[in-house]
Structure formats: C-alpha cells, structure tokens
Amino acid sequence: MSTSAQIRFWSIGLLGFAVLLYVLSGVLLPFVAAMVIAYLLDPLVRQLATLGVPRALSALAVLIGFLVLLVVVVLLLTPLLRAQIQQLIEALPGYAAGLREWLLPRIENAMARLTNEDVERLRDAASSYVGSILSWVANVLSTILTGGLALFDVLSILIITPVVSFYLLRDWPGLVREINSWLPLQHAKIIREQVREVNRTLAGFVHGQAVVCLTLAVYYACLLSLVGLDFALIVGLLAGFLSFIPYVGSIFGLVLSVGLALAQFDTYLDVAVVAGIFLFGQTAEGYFLQPKLVGDRVGLHPVWVMFAVLAGAQLYGFVGVLIAVPVAAMIGVLVRFALERYLESDYYKGPESVSATDESRDGVRTTSV
Predict the structure, then answer these.
(1) Does some domain include residue 39?
(2) Of the residues 9, 36, 337, 345, which has the maximum number of CB atoms within 10 A of its CB?
(3) Which domain holds residue 118?
(4) What is the pLDDT of residues 302-345, one digit of tens each?
(5) How many angstroms separate the CA atoms of 168 and 353, rounded?
(6) pTM of the predicted model, to two decimals?
C-alpha cells in the first residue's frame, strides 16, 4: 500500500471515529468515567499483582477501597455542603443589595463626567457584551451539566461505571496485548514509542495534577474556615478542584472569596488575609507543587490545557471535560513527533542541503579511494 493510500485510510478512520464519538456522546459518560477510574487505579492494581495477588482480586480490592473512600468523603462533606449552600442561597439577596449600594454612587459619579452620547454608547456596548458572555457561559454550563445524561440517570451511572471499571482493571494487560497485535507491522515500533510517550505524559499530568488539586482544596477549605469566611468549604473545594485547569481555580477562588470577604468583614485587614491565602496558595502551586508533582516533563502547556478543556466542554459536555486532557496529551505528542520529522526532512532543509550532503559523501569516497 502506498503512503498516500495509508494516509487516506487512517484519515478516514480517525474522522469516522470522531463522528462516532459525537453521535454517541449522550451515552458515553459512564464508560468514559470508568476508563478514567481504571487508568488512575491501574498502578495500584499492578503493584498488588506483582506481589502475587491475582489480577481479578487485585482489581476488586482496589476498586472497593476507592468506592468506600469516595462514599465516606461524600457522606462527610454532604451535610456541610448542603448547609452552606442553603446559607448561600439565603444570603444572596443581602449580598446583591450591599453590592448595589456600593456600586450605585460610584457609577453615578462616573456617569456625571460623561456626555449623554458616551453614556448611551457604553450602555449599548455593555448590554451587548454582557449578554453574549452570559449566553456563552450558560450554554457551556448547560452542556457540561446535561451532556451525557440524555439516556442515563445518576443511578444508572452509579451502577454501570463501577462494573465497567472492574472489567477494565481486570483485563487491562490483555486489552493492551490485543490492541498491540492489531498495529500495522511496518509502523508498529514507531506507534509503540509514541503511545509510551503519550502514556508518560498523561500519567505524569493526571496523577500529579490530582494530588495538586486535592492538596489545594484541603488548604483553601481549611485556611478559609480558620479565618471565619462564610461558605469557606464551598469556595475552597471549588477552587481546589478547578485547579486542574491552570490558573482558573486560583482566579475563581480569589475573586469569589475576596467578594465574600468584602461583604462579610468590616476591616480591610481581614479581606487582605483572605487574599493572602490565595496568593500564597498560587505561589506554592507554581513554585513547589507543580514542579515537584507534575513537572515540565509532561509537555502540556497551561494554555493548551485550558483550550482543550473548554473545547471538550463545548463539543461533548462533561464527557468532553473528562477526555480533554488525554486528547490534548495525544495531540501534543503527535505534533512534537511530526515537527521532529519535519525538521529532519527535505521540506525543511531544502534540496540544496541534500545535494551538499551528497557532494560531501562523494568527496569522502574519492579521498578514501
């Protein structure tokens, strides 16, 4: 088979796979969640298997331990979260009234310095941009929250995901061997090298970032609770778990916590303490947690991760959020591989470099003779 025919074959295959994912995006959530859980827990299963524990028993023990831990955390946090969410709902009208009282005099002073035409233009521009932004945010949130739940309710996800996770964990080595046997023989070595690179990149990012998010969530929730900020648990957990999107968690938590602190505390010192908690957390994340737990070796730029998560959410909802980082890692590895091949090719070096290389080789042959 010629090179052009191979390119056409794989391009059509990848396009068909992407279309299939899009068509089935409404029913993929339990299975994608199971794949994520299996990928995260597979190292533990492999360690138990190396100690002589049967693979099936290892998978069952690790999965049960993970589910028990998850249930315990949910049972402990649910009452606290429910109470704080109820308090937040009751306090929102008061916060809105206070914000309005604080903003209105300043807006009126600013408007007094502008002409009627300037005020009208600002009003039109603000209404247009704010409407567009709110519509986009609402659309993304709606897609994330409802995507993947068209045919499965929460109960079915809770049943299907653990079962699929167990079978994936139990059969993971066999699945890898089976897929490995399907690789085209001519390019099998290169494909395996790139798959290993994708796995290294993905494992380094996912496992490291999971520890970073958990650490930041505990840090923010505990410190904000100690300083007495209302709804500290909600703000801390959201800021920590949103940190898997670079800078989003810290910025979101900083803005939200400082806004709550301004509405709650009477002195700016308390507000400064709350802001300092997030500034220290962001500094620790950037200079200690990320370098130690994730590192630059994963090759995933923060901007690329942010784009991948937002694009995945827009295209596939919550399923897209789950697969965004793996797809970003895969694309990043393939792009770097293609760039290396391009820099070694005649398309980059040009025909002159090829002829010069041939002439130098002929000269060496002549001299040696």
Answers:
(1) yes
(2) 36
(3) 26-182
(4) 788 888 888 887 777 777 877 888 888 888 888 888 888 888 88
(5) 51
(6) 0.70
